[in-house]
């Protein structure tokens, strides 16, 4: 009975010691965002049996896009189809959970041992806890309020030449955006297009010309060398004349959209496709509320390895972070990278806890043994004394 009591005491003590060093949470990791980066992180963590929940608000930057391109193995796949297939494949891992709800807030909490973990609350008020947070919350494009522009977003009007340029190659191209961004767009697209007009919409001001010259001193000569025309008239509307969804050549992978750009002076110009240069903003307020350091309106991950942010335990992946690349392959890479680093970081914590547990068990066993031996010697001595009476 004494031995059983001793072992039970040790087992109970050790269990409490281990549980107190690792927070007891609903999940190991909560991933916020169900786009390519979030799906990649979820897959990576599930494959090493990390209990991971991905929360998907149903908001995706590339949702309007006809198809994804430059995604090896999925070139030409519609984004919704890609996400659905990814979900199906990930569902075979029993530690992966997908919750179609939006996270409205995340709060850092501290357990009795001063170890930080997180509580996430959804829009319906349900709360979930986790040891780590991965933000794949994405960006939104700040599209000007020009009639017809938003309606055609991702459907012949795009911002990434690697994603959409090839399907409109050799067609009359328009550049939409501020003058300082024109040369950069030409450098990205001049191998695909020879008929280019930059519609700067009144931004070709002396100040912006100086700004462009500070980066490209010979910008005017560069544009002239590629026969790029600059049209600075104010745009009042962009009308779709033909939809590339219905007019396309699937053999040559070409889409034939046609648009009319209407100006304030009553004139108009016809173009087939456009590259844009519009600013972006964080889709979610969670990074700001968590206090993550920001770099040019994006979550700063430049000084922290493995997609870590300035907030311990919080990682940022995909478009929302600052590593400078915003496309599907990048999103998948960043999600995978964060998944690896999160897993190893938790493993180190668990290893340290195991070492502490081992040290604790050795010390506890020594103390219990000393007490047990002491008790037995005391009982033996009493028996000797009784025998001598």
Can you lay out the helices and strands and say which pair or pack?
Elements: H1 2-21, E1 27-32, H2 36-46, E2 52-55, H3 79-90, E3 96-99, E4 103-110, E5 116-122, E6 127-135, E7 139-141, E8 157-158, H4 161-164, E9 173-177, H5 182-189, E10 196-199, H6 206-215, H7 219-225, E11 229-231, E12 235-242, E13 248-249, E14 254-255, E15 258-263, E16 268-271, E17 273-277, E18 280-282, H8 286-290, E19 294-295, E20 298-299, E21 314-316, H9 328-388
Parallel strand pairs: 1-2, 1-6, 2-3, 6-21, 8-17, 9-10, 9-17, 10-11
Antiparallel strand pairs: 4-5, 5-6, 7-18, 12-15, 13-14, 15-16, 19-20
Helix pairs in contact: 1-9, 2-3, 2-9
Describe the model.
By secondary structure, this protein is an alpha/beta fold. The chain folds into 2 domains: 23-141 and 280-352, FAD/NAD(P)-binding domain, CATH 3.50.50; 150-276, FAD/NAD(P)-binding domain (3-Layer(bba) Sandwich). It is built from 9 helices and 21 strands. The strands form 6 sheets. Strands 1, 2, 3, 4, 5, 6 and 21 form a 7-stranded mixed beta sheet that branches. The chain has a 5-stranded parallel beta sheet with strand order 8-17-9-10-11. Strand 5 (116-122) and strand 6 form a beta hairpin. It starts with a helix and ends with a helix. The model is unreliable at 1-20 (pLDDT under 50).
């Amino acid at each position: 009975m004494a031995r059983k009591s001793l072992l039970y005491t040790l087992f109970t003590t050790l269990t409490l010691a281990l549980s107190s060093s690792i927070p007891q949470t609903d999940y190991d990791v909560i991933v916020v965002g169900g786009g390519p980066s979030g799906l990649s992180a979820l897959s990576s963590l599930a494959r090493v049996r990390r209990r991971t929940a991905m929360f998907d608000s149903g908001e995706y930057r590339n949702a309007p896009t006809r198809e994804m391109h430059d995604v090896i193995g999925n070139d030409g796949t519609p984004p919704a189809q890609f996400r659905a297939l990814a979900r199906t494949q990930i569902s075979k891992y029993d530690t992966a959970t997908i919750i179609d709800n939006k996270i409205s807030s995340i709060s850092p909490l501290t357990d009795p041992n001063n170890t930080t973990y997180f509580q996430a609350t959804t829009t319906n008020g349900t709360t979930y806890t986790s040891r780590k947070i991965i933000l794949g919350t994405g960006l939104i494009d700040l599209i000007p309020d020009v009639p017809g522009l938003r309606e055609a977003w991702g459907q012949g009007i795009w911002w990434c030449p690697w994603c959409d340029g090839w399907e409109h190659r050799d067609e009359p191209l328009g550049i939409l955006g501020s003058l300082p961004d024109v040369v950069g767009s030409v450098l990205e697209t001049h191998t695909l297009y020879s008929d280019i007009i930059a519609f700067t919409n009144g931004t070709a001001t002396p100040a912006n010309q100086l700004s462009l010259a500070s980066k490209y001193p010979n910008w005017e000569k560069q544009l002239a060398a590629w026969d790029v025309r600059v049209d600075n008239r104010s745009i009042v509307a962009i009308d779709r004349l033909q939809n590339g969804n219905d007019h396309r050549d699937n053999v040559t992978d070409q889409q034939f959209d046609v648009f009319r750009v209407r100006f304030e002076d009553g004139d108009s110009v016809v173009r087939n496709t456009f590259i844009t240069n519009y600013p972006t903003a964080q889709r979610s307020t969670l990074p700001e509320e968590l206090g993550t350091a920001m770099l040019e309106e994006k979550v700063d991950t430049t000084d922290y390895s493995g997609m870590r942010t300035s907030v311990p335990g919080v990682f940022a992946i995909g478009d929302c972070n600052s590593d400078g690349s915003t496309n599907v392959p990048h999103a998948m890479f960043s999600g995978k990278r964060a998944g690896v680093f999160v897993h190893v970081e938790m493993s180190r914590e668990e290893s340290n806890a195991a070492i502490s547990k081992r040290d604790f068990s050795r010390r506890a066993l020594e103390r219990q043994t000393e007490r047990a031996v002491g008790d037995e010697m005391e009982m033996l001595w009493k028996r000797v004394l009784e025998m001598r009476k």
